[in-house]
Amino acid sequence: MSLKEKIDITRIPQHVAIIMDGNGRWAQQQGKLRVFGHHSGVSAVRAASEAAAELGIKYLTLYAFSTENWNRPKQEVDDLMELLVHTIHSETATLNKNDIRLATIGNINSLPVACQKQLQEAIANTANNKRMTLVLALSYSARWEIVEATKKIAQKVKDGNLEISAIDAAIFSNELSTAAFPDPELLIRTSGEQRISNFLLWQVAYAELYFSETLWPDFDKEELYKAILDYQGRERRFGKTSAQIDTAESS
Ligand code: IPE
Ligand code: IPE
Ligand code: MG
Question: What is the CATH number of the domain that holds 26?
Fold first, then answer.
């Protein structure tokens, strides 16, 4: 039985988020420049998107560039931005073929104008696709997002459009850039690092975390199947006891 066949298609997570890590190390292991790793990471993005869509995952969020990544050497940042423009342009046809809609989260205004334009174009060109939403986190950090949401809420209160007593988790979630998406049930990080690196801090409150040793350019469909199978073996308790979960499942 193949890995894919072992997956219970009735229990597919709706939203999977991935911290795509390890491009630089992948390149360096082969005596190549880090940028080579980023280029090689693009085929892993394609594979993960296709595999996720085929499984019936509705939202796939990929951490592509963090707020902190601006602090990398200028050449690497420039290379990444150029790769982004080029990839978005060349992948739009594949997104349409696979019925995948593109969306972004993050401080998009901070990206070079050429990137912003390419993104706007691809988002418009894929807007009617229904199978899956591919969310690219670009110039994204969760603390940035949480601060932005707080400012929006403060403004509403100041304008008299919101009572302080009415602020709750749902109101807060609604001001985050992920407001239109459900919280991820599964967060994957590649390359053996076991940290969140400022990604979706609010949204992963109850996500299952899966860490893979595989470096991102080597992450293929089978790797995604492994992560989904691992997820399906977990018991998600949300603060309850195991016995309560068993009872709910059998009733
Ligand atoms: C992930 O790979 C891609 C980005 C953060 C843009 P890295 O570039 O972080 O690769 P490592 O972690 O240095 O190997
Ligand atoms: C996290 O990876 C950001 C992205 C994958 C885009 P990093 O490689 O930047 O994270 P740290 O610095 O090792 O925590
Ligand atoms: Mg890294």
Answer: 3.40.1180.10
Q: Is the pLDDT of residue 159 over 90?
A: yes
Segment 73-100 shows an average pLDDT of: 97
**Domain count across the chain:** 1
135: in domain: yes
* Residue 133: inside a domain: yes
- Output the CA 159–ligand 2 centroid distance in Å: 38
Residue 5 lies in a domain: no
Pocket probe for ligand 2: among 20, 197, 215, the residue whose CB has the most ligand atoms within 8 Å is: 197
Rounded percentage of the chain residues whose pLDDT exceeds 90: 98
How far is Cα 135 from Cα 59, in angstroms, rounded to an integer?
A: 7
Q: Is 161 a catalytic residue?
A: no
State the average pLDDT over residues 152-177.
98
pLDDT in tens, 142-153: 999 999 999 999
Q: Under DSSP, is residue 66 helix (H, G, I), strand (E, B) or coil?
A: strand
Answer yes or no: is 166 within a domain: no
Residues 6+ apart with CB under 8 A from 55: 7, 9, 12, 224, 228
Q: Residue 117 is part of which domain span?
A: 11-141+182-232
Report CA torsion sign: 45, 46, 47, 48.
positive
Q: What is the residue whose two structure tokens read 């609604």?
A: 174
Nearest CA to ligand 1 atom 1: 21
Tell how many helices (H) and how many strands (E) occur in the chain. 9, 6
- The per-residue pLDDT for 248 is 86
Instruction: Indicate whether residue 22 lines ligand 1 (CB < 6 A).
Output: yes
Minimal-distance CA residue to ligand 2 atom 8:
21
